[in-house]
Amino acid sequence: MTKPVIDIHKILKLLPHRYPILLVDRVVEFEKDQRIKALKNVTINEPFFVGHFPNRPVMPGVMMLEALAQTAALLSFESMGQQPDENTVVYFLGIDGARFKRVVEPGDQLVLEAWIERAKAGIYKYKARASVDGETAVEAELMCTMRKVA
């Protein structure tokens, strides 16, 4: 097992997400303002497998994209070097070039990677990729922004 750079306890402090939507288990690599690599252990207990699909459980593509967005948010929050307050969230602004290339099933370990391509005027653009056993499952460009909510 790879030793976490950011463990689940810190992830829970950085992200507002909770079960069943928290989709990052640990961060194993981090370069400030550059890149991040995180893990999601996919288990049969995931609530979406009840209906997607009962006879052949497959992780929904939107959940893989959400896991990548959470990973990108961790990259931004951790790069800031300070704990975000509970009113700071990262919102999706856009998803470009999403391509799904491999089915993700229970028992797989999803490796989540994101790279900051641009950060300007509070808008972040990331290149993101999720893979299983070195094989790309999904890749996309994500655009997000941080906002305070009341």
From TrEMBL:
Database matches in Gene3D superfamilies: Hotdog Thioesterase (3.10.129.10)
Database matches in CDD domains: FabZ
Organism domain of life: Bacteria
Active site (UniProt): H52
Reaction catalysed by this enzyme: a (3R)-hydroxyacyl-[ACP] = a (2E)-enoyl-[ACP] + H2O
Localization per Swiss-Prot or TrEMBL: Cytoplasm
The EC number(s) this enzyme carries: 4.2.1.59
GO function terms (MF aspect): (3R)-hydroxyacyl-[acyl-carrier-protein] dehydratase activity
Keyword Lipid biosynthesis: yes
EC class of the enzyme, as a word: lyase
Function text: Involved in unsaturated fatty acids biosynthesis. Catalyzes the dehydration of short chain beta-hydroxyacyl-ACPs and long chain saturated and unsaturated beta-hydroxyacyl-ACPs.
Family: Belongs to the thioester dehydratase family. FabZ subfamily.
HAMAP family xrefs: FabZ (MF_00406)
The name this protein goes by in its record: 3-hydroxyacyl-[acyl-carrier-protein] dehydratase FabZ
Species annotation: Pseudaquabacterium rugosum
Gene name in the database record: fabZ
